[in-house]
Amino acid sequence: MPSYRFCRSDDIPRLVEAYNRCWLASFPDAEPLDEAGLKRWIREEQLWTSSCMLAVEGSEPVAVLLGCKRDDATRIHRLAVHPEHRRLGHGGHLLTSLSSKLAILGPPLLVAELPDDREDLAAFFRACGWEAGPRSADWSRPPGDGETGAPAGMVIPFTVDDLLANDAFETGPERAWGRDLPALEARRDRLEGLAVATFEGIEATWLCDPGDPPRLLSFGTAERGVADRGAADGGSAEAAFRSLLAAWTQHHGPALEVPRVHESEIPAAWLESTGFHRGRSWTSWSAEAEPA
Asked: How many CB atoms are closer than 10 A to CB 232?
């Protein structure tokens, strides 16, 4: 008979073992996880071992749930059942157990981001009572693609601390977990930013993780709600986006990824017109915690 339990901080080696056994069996192209990688998720994704669960049969892990927790929500970061133990209710039991715990301790909102090309995952969460919400998409611009141009106006360096000091960030349910403010704060030491500045203040901001390839994790303007603006405001916002893109390209080259971005942050038309190619689409799913 399988046993289920929540984890503690000293379960990190066991969680790594369970991830590599269960997740990699389902996604063989994924990178194996080590303890350093799990601790990085703890720092950067707000993963909590107390929001993680194991299903064990004998001495072998047969299912694992990795949960990330913020003040307003718990995110299902990974949920995997070993192929030899599927369709036995392990995944549903892990989700139900976490939901029961959060109904008492909070936060009551559970979220997950699922790729749209995996209908089996959507069907599972739907069967567990979850509902589909905002959609986002991955975009990428390969080396040599897209216009470079010259930045217009005054472009200055910008940091996460500057973002906070200028109250220049718009949060909301449309933002993917990795693009919301806590994710940026957790990565503040390695993010590089730019801003369009005028005599009136900061007009637009841009924060990138300069990896290989670099990833644009945040774009925002002084006027909130890019997708809902009129033609005049939308035009100035698009001009600011192009200016920041040109400034970044001058120093880092054209290759750039924009992961899980919602239309309200950067409209698809802007990305298409500057050489980006649409990749995988994602849907944010959610549920309210319920007692057992």
From this structure: 8
Read off the pLDDT of residues 123-182 as tens digits, 9 standing for 90 and up: 999 999 999 999 999 999 998 755 555 566 689 999 999 999 988 788 888 999 999 999
What's the full length of the chain, in residues? Answer: 292
pLDDT at 224 (0 to 100) = 53
Kind and range of the H or E run holding 183: helix 181-186
Residues 6+ apart with CB under 8 A from 174: 134, 136, 262, 263, 264, 265
Give the model's pLDDT for residue 27.
Answer: 87
In the chain, which residues fall in CATH 3.40.630.30?
3-107
End-to-end CA distance of the chain: give it in Å, rounded.
21
Angle at 97 (CA atoms; ends 94, 100), nearest 5 degrees: 150
Structure tokens given for 239: 């001009």
pLDDT tens digits for 176-213? 999 999 999 999 999 999 999 888 888 899 999 999 88
Q: What is the pTM of this model?
A: 0.91
At the topology level of CATH, where does 139-282 sit? Aminopeptidase (3.40.630)
Q: Can you give the pLDDT at residue 232?
A: 38
DSSP state of 215: E
Contact present, 158 and 123 (Cβ < 8 Å) = no
Average pLDDT over residues 211-232: 72
Q: Which residues of 247-273 are buried (b: 16+ CB within 10 A; e: fewer)?
A: bbbeeeebbbbbbbbbbbbbbeebbee
Class of 3-107 in CATH: alpha beta
Rounded to an integer, what is the distance from CA 186 to the centroid of its chain?
Answer: 13
